[in-house]
Amino acid sequence: MCPDKGDKNGSPGDDLSPDLPPDSGSAKGKARKLPQVLACMAAALGTLSSGAVNGWSAGTLTSLDADPDITMGTAETAWVVSIISVGSLAGSVVAGRVMDKLGRRITLVAMAPVLLLGWLTMALAPNIAGVLTGRAICGVATAFLFSTGSVYCSEIPEARMRGRLGSVPSLFITFGIVLSYLSGACFSWRVSCYVCCVPVVLMFVAMLFAPETPYWLLLMGRREDAEKVLRRLRGPEYNFDVEIEEMEKKMTSVGKKMEYRELWRPRTRRPFLISLFMMTLQQVGAANVLMMYTGTIFVSAGVENHSLATVYTGIVQIVFTVLCVLLVDRLGRAPSSCSRRA
């Protein structure tokens, strides 16, 4: 997946890129890349575990069905696959407001224990009700981690790196899907839960040392803190005045607090509807359904080693997601998005 970066609350997505000079820090040295990369990778570990939530059923439904403690029928199978969507829907309703209120970093740190709770609830479940409860909890946490992680990774990098680093959460989701496929192929469904919760533990530890995004700090009127974060991320020789000015211009143009009616104003209505159409097309195309039932589909098709076939499917996803990340800054957002859906 290669979602559009930025959010409706005024975060500096790709629309800032054309306005920023290619090297706004050239007057006092170039920005350091490593701190920006590490911060984005720390946040993306949460989306890696979220990807594992989405792909978990593909590699474990057969193992669940064989477990004598778990009663599985057609209805139970459907609920195991789909209940994370119910949880994600509930989480998505409030995720934007929470990350604006608490900050991107605090939201990620706070949601890590929630996702861990979901995985452990599944691993220790005595019956199918426990599995479904854990999956629902994971769904709620996934909504927060993916939306907040994507915003974090679009607000941390400088403009010339925003396209590639902003795509890191999508890449890590694919890694998470493959992790769930591998753990399902190599271990029982209970052990696979423990394996899949490792990335979110790593994210929790990493985010304790990661900074808040400078854009959110400016939104809160904390310019001095924003400057400290930029100095930490870009290096002491970097001239961040131009970057801060561009952020402040963005806030002035869209306002510090956006209402939903802003989406229907002439300047935002068309891009909003195009984005909505593309995301809707992606969902109704049933790609997620195929991903969650991959193992079951291969079993029904008579594939002898369905677990290995499932892993191969995940590897193909990684290859093309990496290709998308590499092309997003070269071809632009629209061409790479269209090629991805072709």
UniProtKB/TrEMBL annotation:
Mode of membrane association: Multi-pass membrane protein
Ranges where the record places region Disordered: 1-29
Pfam families: Sugar_tr
Keyword annotations: Membrane, Transmembrane, Transmembrane helix
Domain of life from the UniProt record: Eukaryota
Location(s), subcellular: Membrane
InterPro entries from the UniProt entry: MFS_dom, MFS_sugar_transport-like, MFS_trans_sf, MFS_Trehalose_Transporter, Sugar_transporter_CS
S-adenosyl-L-methionine listed as a keyword: no
Residues annotated as domain Major facilitator superfamily (MFS) profile: 35-342
GO terms assigned for molecular function: transmembrane transporter activity
GO CC term, one of those recorded: membrane
First-listed, main subcellular location of the protein, grouped into a coarse class: membrane
Gene3D superfamilies, alphabetized: MFS general substrate transporter like domains (1.20.1250.20)
Transmembrane portions of the chain: 37-58, 78-99, 106-126, 132-153, 165-183, 189-210, 271-291, 311-332
PANTHER family (UniProt xref): GH07001P-RELATED, PTHR48021
Descriptive protein name: Major facilitator superfamily (MFS) profile domain-containing protein
Record organism: Penaeus vannamei
